[in-house]
Amino acid sequence: MTRYLGQGNVAIDEEAGRFRVARKAFTSNEILDWEHNEIFDKCWLYLGHSSEIDEPGTYVSREIAGRELIFNRDVNGQVHAFFNACPHRGAKICAEKSGQGRNFFCLYHGWMFETDGKFKRLPHHSGYPEGFSDDGSVNLAAVPRLQEYRGFWFICFDKDAIDLNSYLGGAMEYLDCAADQAEKIEVISGTQEYGISANWKLLCENTIDGYHADNLHATYFDFARNVASAASGGAPVPRLRLEGRSRDLGNGHGVVEFSAPWGRAAGKWSPAWGEDTRAEVEANYTSLVERVGEEKAHRIANLNRNIVIFPNLMLVDAAGLVIRTIQPGEPGKMHVSTWAVGAAGEPYWLRQLRMKNFLTFLGPGGLATPDDIEALERCQQGFSNSREAGWNDISKGDLNADDLPMEDEGQIRAFWREWAARLDGSADQSDVEKSKVVRR
Known about the structure:
Blueprint: E1 3-5, E2 10-13, E3 18-22, H1 29-40, E4 45-49, E5 58-64, E6 67-73, E7 79-83, E8 98-100, E9 103-105, E10 112-114, E11 119-121, E12 145-149, E13 152-156, H2 164-168, H3 172-179, E14 185-187, E15 192-196, H4 200-207, H5 213-216, H6 218-231, E16 243-250, E17 253-259, H7 278-292, H8 294-302, E18 304-309, E19 313-317, E20 321-328, E21 334-343, H9 348-360, H10 369-385, E22 391-393, E23 403-405, H11 410-423
Antiparallel strand pairs: 1-2, 2-3, 3-22, 4-13, 5-6, 5-8, 6-7, 9-10, 10-11, 12-13, 14-21, 15-21, 16-17, 16-23, 17-18, 18-19, 19-20, 20-21
Helix pairs in contact: 7-8
Protein backbone atom coordinates (compact mmCIF):
# COMPACT_ATOMS: atom_id res chain seq x y z
CA MET A 1 0.00 0.00 0.00
CA THR A 2 1.35 3.42 -0.95
CA ARG A 3 1.47 6.22 1.62
CA TYR A 4 1.48 9.80 0.35
CA LEU A 5 3.29 12.48 2.35
CA GLY A 6 4.32 16.08 1.77
CA GLN A 7 1.00 17.29 0.37
CA GLY A 8 0.96 14.16 -1.81
CA ASN A 9 4.42 14.75 -3.29
CA VAL A 10 6.24 11.82 -1.65
CA ALA A 11 4.94 8.30 -2.29
CA ILE A 12 6.26 5.40 -0.17
CA ASP A 13 5.36 1.74 -0.69
CA GLU A 14 7.22 -0.14 2.04
CA GLU A 15 6.08 -3.57 0.84
CA ALA A 16 7.30 -2.99 -2.69
CA GLY A 17 10.42 -1.11 -1.55
CA ARG A 18 9.52 1.96 -3.63
CA PHE A 19 10.18 5.61 -2.71
CA ARG A 20 9.14 8.25 -5.22
CA VAL A 21 9.02 12.05 -5.32
CA ALA A 22 6.63 14.01 -7.54
CA ARG A 23 8.41 16.14 -10.10
CA LYS A 24 6.06 19.03 -9.41
CA ALA A 25 7.98 19.38 -6.11
CA PHE A 26 10.74 20.91 -8.28
CA THR A 27 8.57 23.08 -10.54
CA SER A 28 5.62 24.42 -8.55
CA ASN A 29 5.49 28.02 -7.33
CA GLU A 30 2.94 26.94 -4.73
CA ILE A 31 5.33 24.37 -3.29
CA LEU A 32 8.14 26.93 -3.21
CA ASP A 33 5.85 29.20 -1.18
CA TRP A 34 5.17 26.30 1.22
CA GLU A 35 8.92 25.72 1.53
CA HIS A 36 9.53 29.33 2.47
CA ASN A 37 6.79 29.21 5.10
CA GLU A 38 7.32 25.75 6.56
CA ILE A 39 11.05 25.15 6.04
CA PHE A 40 13.09 28.33 5.63
CA ASP A 41 10.98 30.30 8.13
CA LYS A 42 11.16 27.53 10.77
CA CYS A 43 14.43 25.59 10.42
CA TRP A 44 17.88 26.51 11.70
CA LEU A 45 19.87 28.03 8.83
CA TYR A 46 23.64 28.47 8.57
CA LEU A 47 24.74 32.09 8.96
CA GLY A 48 28.54 32.04 9.05
CA HIS A 49 31.70 30.95 10.83
CA SER A 50 33.32 32.59 13.85
CA SER A 51 36.55 33.14 11.91
CA GLU A 52 34.76 35.50 9.50
CA ILE A 53 34.24 37.98 12.35
CA ASP A 54 37.30 37.18 14.42
CA GLU A 55 38.06 40.75 15.50
CA PRO A 56 35.82 43.04 17.57
CA GLY A 57 33.84 45.40 15.36
CA THR A 58 33.95 43.15 12.27
CA TYR A 59 30.88 42.17 10.28
CA VAL A 60 29.73 40.38 7.16
CA SER A 61 26.43 40.97 5.41
CA ARG A 62 24.60 38.26 3.49
CA GLU A 63 21.17 37.25 2.30
CA ILE A 64 19.51 34.23 3.87
CA ALA A 65 16.01 32.99 3.07
CA GLY A 66 15.12 36.28 1.42
CA ARG A 67 16.34 38.43 4.35
CA GLU A 68 19.32 40.76 4.32
CA LEU A 69 21.29 40.16 7.53
CA ILE A 70 24.29 41.55 9.40
CA PHE A 71 26.48 38.94 11.15
CA ASN A 72 28.88 40.75 13.46
CA ARG A 73 31.04 40.74 16.57
CA ASP A 74 30.57 43.87 18.64
CA VAL A 75 33.41 45.87 20.18
CA ASN A 76 33.09 43.81 23.37
CA GLY A 77 33.43 40.51 21.50
CA GLN A 78 29.77 39.38 21.52
CA VAL A 79 28.27 37.90 18.33
CA HIS A 80 24.99 39.17 16.88
CA ALA A 81 22.69 38.72 13.90
CA PHE A 82 20.64 41.77 12.89
CA PHE A 83 18.26 42.48 10.06
CA ASN A 84 20.11 44.79 7.68
CA ALA A 85 17.50 47.56 7.81
CA CYS A 86 17.31 50.83 9.67
CA PRO A 87 14.43 50.84 12.21
CA HIS A 88 13.57 54.38 11.07
CA ARG A 89 12.56 53.99 7.42
CA GLY A 90 14.03 50.60 6.54
CA ALA A 91 17.09 51.69 4.55
CA LYS A 92 19.78 49.06 4.18
CA ILE A 93 22.53 49.76 6.74
CA CYS A 94 25.50 47.74 5.43
CA ALA A 95 25.97 47.87 1.67
CA GLU A 96 29.41 46.22 1.77
CA LYS A 97 29.95 42.45 2.00
CA SER A 98 32.22 42.88 5.02
CA GLY A 99 33.88 45.55 7.11
CA GLN A 100 34.99 46.75 10.52
CA GLY A 101 34.05 49.76 12.63
CA ARG A 102 32.78 51.03 15.95
CA ASN A 103 29.30 52.01 14.71
CA PHE A 104 26.66 51.27 12.12
CA PHE A 105 25.44 54.31 10.23
CA CYS A 106 22.33 54.83 8.07
CA LEU A 107 23.07 57.06 5.10
CA TYR A 108 19.44 58.19 4.68
CA HIS A 109 18.85 60.30 7.80
CA GLY A 110 22.09 59.75 9.69
CA TRP A 111 20.84 57.49 12.48
CA MET A 112 23.72 55.72 14.23
CA PHE A 113 23.88 52.44 16.14
CA GLU A 114 26.43 50.73 18.40
CA THR A 115 27.92 47.44 17.19
CA ASP A 116 25.64 45.67 19.68
CA GLY A 117 22.69 47.12 17.76
CA LYS A 118 21.70 49.71 20.32
CA PHE A 119 20.54 53.09 19.10
CA LYS A 120 23.29 55.69 19.60
CA ARG A 121 22.24 59.03 18.18
CA LEU A 122 20.27 60.86 15.56
CA PRO A 123 20.83 64.31 14.08
CA HIS A 124 18.26 67.07 14.51
CA HIS A 125 16.75 65.27 17.49
CA SER A 126 14.29 68.04 18.34
CA GLY A 127 10.72 67.00 17.70
CA TYR A 128 11.10 63.48 19.08
CA PRO A 129 9.30 62.73 22.35
CA GLU A 130 11.25 62.46 25.59
CA GLY A 131 12.54 58.94 26.18
CA PHE A 132 12.06 58.16 22.49
CA SER A 133 14.74 55.45 22.42
CA ASP A 134 14.40 54.08 25.95
CA ASP A 135 12.21 51.06 25.10
CA GLY A 136 14.67 49.63 22.55
CA SER A 137 12.23 49.87 19.65
CA VAL A 138 14.70 51.91 17.60
CA ASN A 139 17.60 49.51 18.11
CA LEU A 140 18.62 47.33 15.18
CA ALA A 141 16.21 44.38 15.08
CA ALA A 142 17.86 41.08 16.02
CA VAL A 143 17.07 37.76 14.36
CA PRO A 144 14.82 35.81 16.80
CA ARG A 145 17.28 32.94 17.39
CA LEU A 146 21.08 32.80 17.12
CA GLN A 147 23.20 29.85 18.31
CA GLU A 148 26.64 28.42 17.65
CA TYR A 149 28.17 24.94 17.46
CA ARG A 150 31.95 24.54 17.18
CA GLY A 151 32.33 27.93 15.49
CA PHE A 152 29.44 27.37 13.06
CA TRP A 153 26.71 29.98 13.67
CA PHE A 154 23.05 29.37 12.82
CA ILE A 155 19.95 31.55 12.92
CA CYS A 156 16.26 30.70 13.08
CA PHE A 157 13.33 32.98 12.37
CA ASP A 158 11.02 30.86 14.56
CA LYS A 159 11.39 31.93 18.19
CA ASP A 160 9.74 28.69 19.33
CA ALA A 161 12.06 26.33 17.45
CA ILE A 162 13.95 23.61 19.32
CA ASP A 163 17.50 24.43 20.38
CA LEU A 164 20.31 24.13 17.83
CA ASN A 165 22.01 21.05 19.32
CA SER A 166 18.74 19.10 19.31
CA TYR A 167 18.17 20.17 15.72
CA LEU A 168 21.67 19.17 14.56
CA GLY A 169 21.45 15.80 16.29
CA GLY A 170 23.63 13.22 14.53
CA ALA A 171 25.16 15.89 12.28
CA MET A 172 27.20 17.23 15.22
CA GLU A 173 29.55 14.25 14.94
CA TYR A 174 30.47 15.31 11.41
CA LEU A 175 30.80 18.99 12.27
CA ASP A 176 33.25 17.79 14.92
CA CYS A 177 35.25 16.01 12.21
CA ALA A 178 35.52 19.32 10.37
CA ALA A 179 36.28 21.47 13.42
CA ASP A 180 38.88 19.07 14.83
CA GLN A 181 41.07 19.02 11.70
CA ALA A 182 43.29 21.68 13.27
CA GLU A 183 43.71 23.59 16.51
CA LYS A 184 41.71 26.32 14.80
CA ILE A 185 40.00 26.31 11.44
CA GLU A 186 39.16 29.46 9.50
CA VAL A 187 37.16 30.50 6.48
CA ILE A 188 39.62 31.66 3.83
CA SER A 189 38.91 35.11 2.43
CA GLY A 190 36.93 35.03 -0.80
CA THR A 191 33.61 33.51 -1.85
CA GLN A 192 32.44 31.65 -4.92
CA GLU A 193 28.90 32.67 -5.86
CA TYR A 194 27.02 31.33 -8.86
CA GLY A 195 23.56 30.46 -10.07
CA ILE A 196 22.19 27.14 -11.30
CA SER A 197 19.05 26.86 -13.42
CA ALA A 198 17.61 24.06 -11.31
CA ASN A 199 15.58 23.61 -8.15
CA TRP A 200 17.50 24.01 -4.88
CA LYS A 201 16.66 20.51 -3.64
CA LEU A 202 18.51 18.93 -6.56
CA LEU A 203 21.85 20.20 -5.25
CA CYS A 204 21.02 18.88 -1.77
CA GLU A 205 20.45 15.46 -3.31
CA ASN A 206 23.55 15.70 -5.48
CA THR A 207 25.88 16.59 -2.61
CA ILE A 208 25.22 13.30 -0.79
CA ASP A 209 24.55 11.16 -3.88
CA GLY A 210 27.33 8.57 -4.06
CA TYR A 211 25.68 6.82 -7.00
CA HIS A 212 26.67 9.34 -9.66
CA ALA A 213 30.39 9.87 -8.97
CA ASP A 214 31.98 7.17 -11.15
CA ASN A 215 29.78 7.96 -14.12
CA LEU A 216 29.34 11.74 -14.07
CA HIS A 217 32.87 12.56 -12.91
CA ALA A 218 34.74 10.03 -15.08
CA THR A 219 36.91 12.80 -16.55
CA TYR A 220 38.09 13.84 -13.09
CA PHE A 221 38.88 10.27 -12.06
CA ASP A 222 40.92 9.79 -15.24
CA PHE A 223 42.78 13.01 -14.44
CA ALA A 224 43.43 11.92 -10.84
CA ARG A 225 44.67 8.53 -12.03
CA ASN A 226 47.08 10.17 -14.48
CA VAL A 227 48.41 12.49 -11.76
CA ALA A 228 48.88 9.52 -9.42
CA SER A 229 50.67 7.60 -12.18
CA ALA A 230 53.02 10.51 -12.89
CA ALA A 231 53.76 10.95 -9.18
CA SER A 232 54.72 7.27 -8.90
CA GLY A 233 57.16 7.44 -11.82
CA GLY A 234 54.75 6.33 -14.54
CA ALA A 235 53.59 3.12 -12.85
CA PRO A 236 50.03 2.23 -13.93
CA VAL A 237 47.32 3.07 -11.44
CA PRO A 238 44.12 1.01 -11.31
CA ARG A 239 40.76 2.59 -12.02
CA LEU A 240 39.84 4.83 -9.11
CA ARG A 241 36.67 4.28 -7.11
CA LEU A 242 35.07 5.89 -4.10
CA GLU A 243 34.04 3.40 -1.42
CA GLY A 244 32.11 4.16 1.73
CA ARG A 245 28.83 4.32 3.60
CA SER A 246 25.85 6.63 3.73
CA ARG A 247 23.87 7.49 6.86
CA ASP A 248 20.60 9.06 7.87
CA LEU A 249 21.58 11.46 10.67
CA GLY A 250 18.05 12.38 11.74
CA ASN A 251 16.06 15.59 11.24
CA GLY A 252 16.62 15.45 7.46
CA HIS A 253 20.44 15.51 7.68
CA GLY A 254 22.50 12.96 5.75
CA VAL A 255 26.10 12.04 4.97
CA VAL A 256 28.29 9.92 2.73
CA GLU A 257 31.65 9.03 4.28
CA PHE A 258 34.20 7.39 2.02
CA SER A 259 37.81 6.61 1.21
CA ALA A 260 39.43 8.12 -1.88
CA PRO A 261 42.88 8.15 -3.51
CA TRP A 262 43.71 11.82 -3.05
CA GLY A 263 45.66 13.39 -0.20
CA ARG A 264 43.99 15.30 2.62
CA ALA A 265 45.39 18.42 4.21
CA ALA A 266 44.15 17.11 7.56
CA GLY A 267 47.00 14.57 7.59
CA LYS A 268 47.05 12.20 4.60
CA TRP A 269 50.09 12.74 2.42
CA SER A 270 49.93 12.25 -1.37
CA PRO A 271 52.91 11.55 -3.68
CA ALA A 272 51.47 14.21 -5.98
CA TRP A 273 52.43 16.80 -3.33
CA GLY A 274 56.14 16.01 -3.57
CA GLU A 275 58.45 14.15 -1.21
CA ASP A 276 59.61 17.39 0.42
CA THR A 277 56.13 17.90 1.94
CA ARG A 278 55.84 14.45 3.47
CA ALA A 279 57.42 15.14 6.86
CA GLU A 280 55.21 18.19 7.45
CA VAL A 281 51.99 16.31 6.64
CA GLU A 282 53.03 13.40 8.85
CA ALA A 283 53.74 15.88 11.65
CA ASN A 284 50.22 17.24 11.18
CA TYR A 285 48.88 13.74 11.64
CA THR A 286 50.93 13.18 14.79
CA SER A 287 49.54 16.42 16.22
CA LEU A 288 46.01 15.32 15.28
CA VAL A 289 46.46 12.03 17.16
CA GLU A 290 47.64 13.90 20.23
CA ARG A 291 44.56 16.13 20.18
CA VAL A 292 41.74 13.69 19.34
CA GLY A 293 43.13 10.16 19.73
CA GLU A 294 44.24 7.56 17.20
CA GLU A 295 40.80 6.30 16.11
CA LYS A 296 39.29 9.71 15.43
CA ALA A 297 42.52 11.03 13.89
CA HIS A 298 42.55 8.16 11.41
CA ARG A 299 38.96 8.91 10.47
CA ILE A 300 39.52 12.65 10.10
CA ALA A 301 42.73 12.31 8.08
CA ASN A 302 41.87 9.37 5.83
CA LEU A 303 38.13 9.52 5.20
CA ASN A 304 36.15 12.09 3.22
CA ARG A 305 32.65 13.33 4.03
CA ASN A 306 29.87 15.04 2.12
CA ILE A 307 27.26 16.29 4.58
CA VAL A 308 23.86 17.93 4.13
CA ILE A 309 22.38 19.69 7.15
CA PHE A 310 18.71 20.22 6.38
CA PRO A 311 17.63 22.25 4.62
CA ASN A 312 20.43 24.02 2.74
CA LEU A 313 23.88 23.69 4.37
CA MET A 314 26.52 21.41 2.85
CA LEU A 315 30.05 20.57 3.96
CA VAL A 316 32.29 18.98 1.35
CA ASP A 317 35.19 17.56 3.34
CA ALA A 318 37.42 15.94 0.72
CA ALA A 319 40.87 17.04 -0.53
CA GLY A 320 39.96 20.36 1.06
CA LEU A 321 37.11 21.52 3.28
CA VAL A 322 34.34 23.61 1.73
CA ILE A 323 31.15 25.14 3.16
CA ARG A 324 28.29 25.52 0.68
CA THR A 325 24.83 27.07 1.08
CA ILE A 326 21.90 27.35 -1.31
CA GLN A 327 19.27 30.04 -1.48
CA PRO A 328 16.21 29.15 -3.59
CA GLY A 329 15.03 31.61 -6.20
CA GLU A 330 12.29 30.62 -8.59
CA PRO A 331 11.33 26.92 -8.59
CA GLY A 332 13.92 26.39 -11.32
CA LYS A 333 16.66 28.71 -9.99
CA MET A 334 19.08 28.64 -7.08
CA HIS A 335 21.95 30.79 -5.83
CA VAL A 336 24.99 28.96 -4.45
CA SER A 337 27.65 30.38 -2.12
CA THR A 338 30.80 28.46 -1.19
CA TRP A 339 33.73 29.16 1.13
CA ALA A 340 37.03 27.32 1.45
CA VAL A 341 38.12 26.43 4.98
CA GLY A 342 41.68 25.87 6.17
CA ALA A 343 43.80 25.48 9.27
CA ALA A 344 44.78 28.81 10.80
CA GLY A 345 48.52 29.39 10.40
CA GLU A 346 49.09 26.51 7.99
CA PRO A 347 52.08 26.72 5.59
CA TYR A 348 51.71 28.55 2.31
CA TRP A 349 52.09 25.45 0.13
CA LEU A 350 49.27 23.66 1.95
CA ARG A 351 46.99 26.69 1.73
CA GLN A 352 47.69 26.80 -2.01
CA LEU A 353 46.72 23.13 -2.33
CA ARG A 354 43.43 23.86 -0.59
CA MET A 355 42.72 26.76 -2.91
CA LYS A 356 43.64 24.70 -5.96
CA ASN A 357 41.10 22.08 -4.89
CA PHE A 358 38.55 24.81 -4.18
CA LEU A 359 38.96 26.31 -7.65
CA THR A 360 39.80 23.39 -9.92
CA PHE A 361 37.57 20.68 -8.51
CA LEU A 362 34.69 22.22 -6.56
CA GLY A 363 34.53 25.62 -8.27
CA PRO A 364 31.96 26.48 -10.96
CA GLY A 365 34.76 26.21 -13.57
CA GLY A 366 36.44 23.15 -12.07
CA LEU A 367 36.56 19.49 -12.94
CA ALA A 368 33.52 18.35 -10.94
CA THR A 369 31.02 21.16 -10.35
CA PRO A 370 30.32 21.84 -14.06
CA ASP A 371 29.42 18.15 -14.44
CA ASP A 372 26.97 18.46 -11.55
CA ILE A 373 25.49 21.71 -12.85
CA GLU A 374 24.94 20.20 -16.29
CA ALA A 375 23.24 17.15 -14.79
CA LEU A 376 20.99 19.18 -12.47
CA GLU A 377 19.96 21.59 -15.22
CA ARG A 378 19.14 18.62 -17.46
CA CYS A 379 16.97 17.24 -14.66
CA GLN A 380 15.11 20.54 -14.44
CA GLN A 381 14.67 20.57 -18.21
CA GLY A 382 13.38 17.01 -18.07
CA PHE A 383 10.78 17.92 -15.46
CA SER A 384 9.44 20.62 -17.75
CA ASN A 385 9.56 18.50 -20.89
CA SER A 386 7.91 15.36 -19.52
CA ARG A 387 5.04 16.51 -17.34
CA GLU A 388 3.14 13.29 -17.98
CA ALA A 389 6.03 11.28 -16.44
CA GLY A 390 5.39 12.67 -13.01
CA TRP A 391 7.72 10.91 -10.56
CA ASN A 392 11.39 10.56 -9.63
CA ASP A 393 12.52 7.26 -8.14
CA ILE A 394 14.72 7.21 -5.01
CA SER A 395 14.36 3.53 -4.07
CA LYS A 396 17.96 2.28 -4.13
CA GLY A 397 18.78 0.42 -0.91
CA ASP A 398 16.72 -0.82 2.03
CA LEU A 399 14.00 1.72 2.79
CA ASN A 400 14.26 1.09 6.54
CA ALA A 401 18.05 1.10 6.97
CA ASP A 402 19.96 4.04 8.44
CA ASP A 403 23.42 2.83 7.31
CA LEU A 404 23.88 1.77 3.67
CA PRO A 405 26.56 1.65 0.96
CA MET A 406 27.21 5.16 -0.33
CA GLU A 407 25.81 4.18 -3.75
CA ASP A 408 22.37 3.67 -2.17
CA GLU A 409 19.86 6.45 -1.56
CA GLY A 410 18.82 6.20 2.10
CA GLN A 411 20.52 9.49 2.97
CA ILE A 412 18.57 11.24 0.20
CA ARG A 413 15.32 9.68 1.41
CA ALA A 414 16.11 11.10 4.87
CA PHE A 415 16.05 14.60 3.36
CA TRP A 416 12.73 13.94 1.64
CA ARG A 417 11.07 12.44 4.71
CA GLU A 418 11.85 15.59 6.67
CA TRP A 419 10.77 17.79 3.77
CA ALA A 420 7.46 15.94 3.56
CA ALA A 421 6.86 16.07 7.32
CA ARG A 422 7.40 19.81 7.38
CA LEU A 423 5.07 20.46 4.49
CA ASP A 424 2.43 18.35 6.22
CA GLY A 425 3.01 20.21 9.48
CA SER A 426 3.92 16.96 11.26
CA ALA A 427 7.65 17.50 11.86
CA ASP A 428 8.39 17.55 15.58
CA GLN A 429 12.02 17.04 16.54
CA SER A 430 11.07 16.43 20.17
CA ASP A 431 9.34 13.21 19.04
CA VAL A 432 12.02 10.60 18.45
CA GLU A 433 9.56 8.35 16.66
CA LYS A 434 9.13 10.99 13.96
CA SER A 435 12.72 12.12 13.67
CA LYS A 436 15.44 9.72 14.76
CA VAL A 437 18.86 10.94 15.83
CA VAL A 438 21.40 8.38 14.65
CA ARG A 439 24.79 8.26 16.36
CA ARG A 440 27.75 6.00 15.79
